[in-house]
Design goal:
The structure is a single chain. The protein has 577 residues and is α/β, with parallel strands linked by helices. It has 22 helices and 19 strands. The strands form five sheets. A seven-stranded mixed sheet has the order 2-8-7-6-5-3-4, sandwiched between helices. The chain starts with a helix and ends with a strand.
């Protein structure tokens, strides 16, 4: 932009251009501008609260708009006046005073258009365009910002030393959480990962095996903590799309303790299931899996980081979902919107031992009421999770309508988008989303995950869909990684081909057809072992097929293979015993 400024300079004052680079004139209708700025940057409830508590800001906003409009009239008539720049500087200061300083006004420096009355350097941008400039963060529901009520609760929290169990706010949170999931007791922990690791350590003995789905969060995303912190082994079960292992799978995977085996110590489940697309596991599946574990005399634990999303999606009480298991962990810092914290719940005996383990892992906090108080307010956000689910369905439907993208209707607030049909690798797709100010995470080679939360609404979803559809339509040379090459394991009889069957060679040729070489697209691989001096390009020209280098390449005498079809031979091959 600076190079453009100096290249198209129409004024000699460098300071004037520096000021103009931070300003941009909004649309002409002042009243409409005021309403759209308010709607774009404040929710209705938040704005009412701001109006009630900070009425002077509303007055400042009105002065800002009127001054802004007056400046436009002034600049059209007296652009040459040096006072115009003083007015622009005044507007920049007032926009910060009015509380809308998050909007970045950037002046597009351009030459004067003789057919327009606009002065050079000015461009008009509507508030809808400013809205489109904002970043829409759909990476996770962990990116939510605490509300004003949460911040005030943290400031005014009644605190004490939680290690001594003297913090009244933490005690209240633990009691409410335990009642919410129907448990005897609960323990406040800094993170969901710590809650899961505490549960595994308390439930198991060293060397025992932990049964869980092969895509479970504990196994996939927690740095092998169960091996490092609890010294247990992992035996995975493929739960598939149902996201919960069947009783038969649990019985088959269970190992009793013996002289040679430490035995199975714990079964862990996950609800909702993160990697499998936010699947809400129904209570009957949880109950069947937990009953199978209890039949094997092992406890069951639920990683319920988004447990309340499952409860809202299934329209069941959270206590019903976790009643069959021995312990449960759920997060306050995801869809519920708290800045920090999770809760581990179970029996009194289990929580007493978990408290010792939390202290061992460094989770014993002192005046923790300051971070627990927002968690109390977060528990009031359970019912609004349905809005996140609706936005996720809206996002999935919009992305699925884009040619090349595929997105199934989600159970909860996680949307999995497959971009294989568009020939866009997930890493590239997520990168382009980020460039378009729609933040997302690549889950594997072809699937990208989007997550809705309380800081995005239906309008954000529509804008995100528009941005993604634009860059997908303009994609260029975004190729997927090559598919793995299948390898046949059998070795059929060797085939000897006559010279006439292989017209590239002038003399007698002996070639071999070996099935064990890589086979692409169903075509056989011909391995030339003659003294032919043909180059790879000559093979490609004569046969019209793609060549694949073998042990030797380039212009070597032999040793490169030709991927071709059977009908490429002039005559059918002759089989010899």
């Amino acid at each position: 932009m600076l190079s453009e400024v100096f290249a198209n300079q129409t004024h000699r004052s460098v300071c004037a251009f520096a000021v103009r680079c931070f300003l941009r004139v909004t649309q002409r209708d002042c009243y409409d501008t005021f309403l759209k700025v308010v709607r774009a940057h404040y929710s209705s409830r938040s704005f009412r609260r701001q109006f009630r508590r900070f009425g002077f800001r509303v007055v400042s906003m009105f002065v800002f708009i009127m001054t802004h409009a007056g400046t436009r009239v002034f600049c059209r008539s007296f652009f040459a006046s040096r006072f115009f720049f003083a007015f622009e500087l005044l507007l920049m200061l007032m926009q910060r005073t009015c509380g809308v300083h998050k909007i970045l006004f950037i002046c597009e420096i351009r030459r004067r258009d003789p057919q327009t009355s606009d002065p050079p350097g000015l461009s008009t941008v509507t508030v809808s365009e400013l809205w489109r400039m904002q970043t829409i963060d759909l990476r996770s529901d962990t990116v939510t910002k605490p509300s004003t009520e949460m911040r005030e609760a943290a400031r005014d929290a009644d605190v004490g030393d939680d290690v001594y169990r003297d913090d009244p706010t933490v005690n209240e949170l633990q009691q409410r959480a335990a009642n919410l999931v129907g448990a005897e007791s609960a323990l406040y922990v800094p993170s969901g990962t710590m809650g899961n690791q505490i549960a595994v350590r308390v439930h198991t003995d060293r060397g025992q095996e932990l049964l869980l789905d092969r895509e479970a969060h504990i196994y996939r995303w927690e740095l092998g903590g169960v091996a490092q912190l609890s010294e247990v082994q992992i035996r995975t079960i493929d739960a598939g799309a149902r996201a919960a292992p069947t009783p038969e799978q649990i019985h088959d995977a269970y190992l009793p303790e013996s002289l040679h085996r430490p035995g199975t110590g714990l079964l862990t489940l996950e609800n909702t299931h993160n990697y499998r697309g936010g699947v809400a596991v129904p209570p009957e599946s949880i109950a069947a899996a937990a009953a199978a574990a209890h039949d094997c005399d092992i406890p069951a634990h639920i990683d319920g980081a988004r447990l309340f999303n499952a409860a809202v999606a299934l329209d069941v009480d959270p206590a019903v979902l976790v009643d069959p298991v021995d312990s449960v962990m759920f997060c306050l810092s995801k869809g519920l919107g708290a800045p920090i914290g999770s809760v581990l719940a179970g029996s009194e005996e289990f929580i007493d031992e978990a408290r010792r383990t939390r202290k061992l892992l460094g989770g014993g906090m002192r005046q923790a009421g300051m971070v627990a108080a927002p968690g109390l307010h977060a528990l009031e956000n359970i019912d609004r999770l349905a809005t996140d689910h609706e936005n996720a369905s809206r996002l999935a439907a919009g992305l699925d309508s884009i040619p090349g993208l595929s997105a199934a209707t989600p159970d909860t607030n996680l949307v999995m988008v497959d971009s294989r049909a568009a020939e866009i690798p997930a890493e590239k797709f997520a990168s382009e989303c980020n460039n378009a100010e729609v933040l997302a995470n690549a889950l594997n080679e072809t699937v990208t995950r989007f997550c809705t939360h309380l800081n995005v609404d239906a309008r954000d979803i529509d804008v995100a869909i528009d941005r993604i559809s634009e860059f997908v339509a303009d994609r260029r040379d975004w190729t997927l990684p090559p598919a793995p090459v299948p390898r046949a394991l059998c070795q059929p009889p060797r085939l000897k081909l006559r010279a006439s069957a292989f017209p590239l060679c002038e003399s007698t040729v002996t070639c071999s057809y070996r099935e064990q070489w890589p086979t692409l697209c169903g075509y056989p691989v011909i391995d030339c072992i003659s003294g032919c001096r043909r180059t790879r390009d000559e093979y490609r020209t004569r046969l019209g097929h793609v060549c694949q280098d073998g042990p030797f390449s380039g212009t070597q005498r032999c040793g490169f293979r030709i991927r071709t079809a059977r009908n490429a031979f002039a005559e059918p091959p002759v089989t010899f015993p």
